[in-house]
Amino acid sequence: MDDGLNRQASKDLGQLRPALKFLRPYVPQILIASVALIVTASVTLSIGQGLRLVVDSGFVEGGSSELLERSLGIFALLVGLLTIGTFVRFYFVSWIGERVSADLRNAVFERLVSLHPGYFETNFPTEIQSRITTDTTLLQTVIGSSVSIALRNLLMFLGGLVLLFVTNVKLSLIVLLCVPLVVVPIILFGRRVRRLSRDSQDRLADVGSFAGEALRHIKVVQAFNHQTADLANFSARVQRAFAVAVHRIRQRAVLVAVVMLLVMGAIATMVWIGGQDVLSGNISAGELAAFIFYAFIVAGSVGAISEVFSDLQRAAGATERLVELLTAESALVEPPAPKNLPAGIPSVALDNVSFSYPTRPTVQVLQGVSCNIEPGEMVALVGPSGAGKSTLFDLLQRFYDPAEGAVRFADMDLKSLSLECVRGVTGFVPQEAVLFAGSVGDNLRYGNAGASDEALLRALELANAHEFVARLPDGLDTMIGEGGSGLSGGQKQRLAIARALVAEPRILLLDEATSALDADSEEAIRGSIERLKGQCTIIAIAHRLSTVRQADRILVLDEGRLIAAGRHEELLTSNPLYARFSRIQFGAGREVRAAG
Ligand code: ATP
Fold first, then answer.
1. 377 is catalytic
2. Residue 396 CA, ligand 1 centroid: distance in Å
3. Is the domain of 55 the same as that of 195?
4. Is the CB–ligand 1 distance for residue 359 below 6 Å?
């Protein structure tokens, strides 16, 4: 056999090694399954000997009925043992398969949630979601059945081969000659199946992610009458997945058929030669019966191994994809010995910060931004769309590291603190409120699981959400759907503010929603911010004049640069860019209303 092929096959199956690590905790179960495996294989093999006895004693002239009965008794005993052994083997092997895939899912998810957010810009979440389900399910099938089939058949193959030789050497040599004929196609086709299997899983992930996106945004799909186009797109993806799967199945079908043909051909030759020997009286009929039995076992096990070999190759493909996720490294390195922030409200400093997104390294989104924000100060961040305001918030929460310069809390570089600490002191209210499926209370406790109901109510009041929450059918226990479905935009926004406050942040990052709040709520939140001032540092991306007026200081960002800082009235006169921006952004009408 070609040595290169051999090495290739072992390298391919080597992809499965990381999955083996997950088997380690279950050695007792593996041992039980192995014992059951050995028992069932031995029993099956010994049935051949029983067959020989029964044929020679019962069906051939001169046999005794007493011998026949005894043989049948032993046979019944063996069948009983086989039944119990099969149950134990099946149960434990399937259990291990399920357990390992559950552990793998956990391990993959654990790794994923700790990765830097930028990872998910190049690796799409819906595709990853499919890997967690389909790839682990494939592994579960392989560990829970294919491996056991392969091992059982390997044992049967070896045992059967030995017993073949014990029964008849000449006939056994015929069988042996056929082995390489069978093994070479297994390895050749197996490699192709593995490649196609990975392809097939990728295509399946594609199908899943497309459906996920369309269903998540079903209103937009329907509003644009995009159903037919989506269906066509979806069908094209399904078709591609189908085509790859058919290709894989064809390879596998050819493999199984070729192996069967070779095996059956060999058996036919052997029966013919053996039959001649029985006729000439060289061997007994029982011997030939036992031999045929073993030959079928050996052939069957080779067939079964060839079939599950491609399963193992498929699993290697799936493991490769899972291992990519399991070994993905976060770009945000945590210090080995993180420092602790001193108690109290920390100051915030940006020191000559420049930044580009990893997906667009040539575009500088922030350029040499420096500023100091005093503890308890309220700062409004203003600037045209795309100026880099949200990016600055990302850096303040260390979702990305600056390319140059440093971000500091209480004069400590964020890189010297643990990520948990950075996110623990900051509270973030995104422009588009993201809520999770669960009760209103669950959502409010998102950043502070131990918060009391009183704390929730206080936060709700500050966010001017207490009245509408009280009017909900079950108050805090009202269930809301994924993404906060069942609530209006303004209600979601106010809940998001309350959620940030429940976590008692020392630095509140507020990305103002421009349209979600009505004038009443806006006024109420203005009042809340007034009450919060001094209790924590507030940095607000401001789209409303009311917020800008409230701020102790305004930082004006334009094309990634900090171009001015000061109070609203000062900047109106001192900075023409701000004056123009203010006129466009805040509008004369709003200014009159707010001023009035
Ligand atoms: P807006 O007021 O419209 O929200 P902004 O001032 O918050 O705008 P940012 O969202 O910080 O602006 O974006 C600044 C620039 O960075 C934009 O040119 C944007 O296209 C780019 N950008 C934002 N996010 C990413 C990303 N994940 N990858 C690559 N580029 C990005």
1. no
2. 15
3. yes
4. yes
